[in-house]
Structure formats: C-alpha cells, structure tokens
TrEMBL record:
<dbReference type="GO" id="GO:0004222">
    <property type="term" value="F:metalloendopeptidase activity"/>
</dbReference>
<keyword id="KW-0175">Coiled coil</keyword>
<dbReference type="InterPro" id="IPR050570">
    <property type="entry name" value="Cell_wall_metabolism_enzyme"/>
</dbReference>
<protein>
    <recommendedName>
        <fullName>Peptidase M23 domain-containing protein</fullName>
    </recommendedName>
</protein>
<dbReference type="InterPro" id="IPR011055">
    <property type="entry name" value="Dup_hybrid_motif"/>
</dbReference>
<feature type="coiled-coil region">
    <location>
        <begin position="11"/>
        <end position="77"/>
    </location>
</feature>
C-alpha cells in the first residue's frame, strides 16, 4: 500500500514537473517569437535606410542637415521669431495660401505642415480640433500600411485643405520619428498633409491673417501664414506655402 502511494506521489510530482517545463518552454517560445519580430523590424529599418541613402554617407549627412534646418526654422516660427505682416480679417473657409508644389525651403516635397498653438506658445494636437474627412494614410512604411500614425479627428473645425487628404505624418511620437534615423526630433509638433484635389489652404476658423517667413541656418526663407482665431486663445500656422 505504501509503495503504491509512493508511486502515485512520484507520478504526480513528475506530472507537475512536466507541466512546469511545458510552461517554461512556452514562455521561451513566446520570447523567441518576440525577438524574431524585433529583429525583422530592425532588418526592415536597415533596409529602408540603405534604400534611402544608397549606402552614401554624404547623402545621409545632407538629409540630416536638411532635417536640422527644418526643425530650427519650425521651432523658431512656433516661438514667434518669424517676420510677419498683418493682412486683415479672414473668414472660416477663406483662402489664406497655396501649398508649394515640389521641394522648397526646408521641405523635400509638397506638403502643408499644420500647427495648432495656444497664445502662450504651447502646441496642441490638431486632431483634437479638426473634424472627420476622407483621407489616405501614408504616414507609415507605405501608403495604407498598418503601421501608420493614428488618424483620429474629434473636433468641429473644417480642414485647412480639401479632401481627399494625403496624410504623411501625424502629431507627437510618429512612425517617422522611430524609423527615419536622420530626423533630429522625437516629437512632431503638427501634422503633415496634402490634398489630392487642390493646393489651396483655407482658414479653419475666423480670425486675423498674418503672412510670415523665417530665414534660418539653411539660408532660405520658410514661408508660412498664421491665423489668430477671434473666438479663442488659439492660432493656427500653415507652413511651406505661397501667399
């Protein structure tokens, strides 16, 4: 009787031990799969970098310098250091500028860098104010990919561009921040957008229109317009535009 009980106890102990080993193996499998995913992502990042720079250090430094110049100019404009001229009152939906088509000062291609700022200088998430609109998400590794930045407008402001919106970078900690190594910032202070139907930029609210520019380390003048909203302590900035 004692031997039977001892055998049963040994069997139960072995069963528990096997279950613990199985759990440990399952955990190791999950860890390995996670590491494989990370390595795959790192490989994709490296391939992306090599594709963009074509293994050319000189080209990489050129991209880095351009990004640093853009950051310096945008930060200066947000801080109120641009040279501005008051134009006058504009209504919501009225034309304020046109998005420059092609490369321009501190920009490698056509897009509107749209910023919402409080009068104390603090930038805000534009999606907290803009309403819904038809869009194409091109903010990730490719247009329509699942790794793009969130597009979640929840406000009632009209958009500064006509639909359909081509969305190339979001607000805050974006895909580009984490995957493009020459970007010298870890937080994107606006959204980068373009329209597939028009290059006209509109006032999102009633207010006073200012035309401005800033000449920074790149030696060129980054043009922008600003609308100081009449019904709140916000203003909006529209960068990479012609008046």
């Amino acid at each position: 009787m004692y031997e039977v009980q001892a055998t049963k106890t040994d069997f139960e102990d072995q069963k528990i031990l096997l279950e613990e080993k199985k759990t440990e193996l399952d955990q190791l499998k999950v860890k390995l799969e996670t590491q494989t995913i990370v390595l795959d992502e790192q490989k994709k990042d490296k391939e992306y970098l090599l594709e963009i720079t074509k293994s050319d250090e000189q080209n990489y430094q050129k991209l880095l310098a351009a990004a640093q110049a853009e950051l310096e100019a945008i930060q200066a404009i947000v801080a109120g250091k641009g040279t501005e001229t008051e134009v006058g009152h504009v209504n919501e939906g009225q034309r304020v500028a046109s998005v420059i088509q092609g490369p321009s000062c501190n920009s490698s291609g056509a897009h509107l860098h749209f910023i919402v700022r409080k009068n104390d200088g603090a930038v805000q998430n534009p999606f907290s104010f803009l309403n819904g609109i038809d869009f194409e998400n091109c903010s990730g590794s490719s247009c329509g990919s699942s790794d793009g930045d969130s597009f979640n407008p929840s406000g009632d402001w009209r958009w500064p561009l006509d639909a359909k919106i081509r969305y190339s970078q979001g607000y805050g900690s974006t895909w580009a921040v984490h995957h493009i190594p020459w970007l010298p910032y870890d937080f994107h202070n606006g959204i980068d957008i373009n329209s597939t139907s028009s290059n006209t930029a509109y006032a999102v609210k009633n207010g006073t229109l200012y035309r401005g520019s800033y000449t920074g380390m790149a030696g060129c003048a980054l043009r922008y317009v600003r609308v100081d909203h009449e019904d709140s302590d916000y203003d909006t900035l529209y960068l990479h535009v012609n008046y």
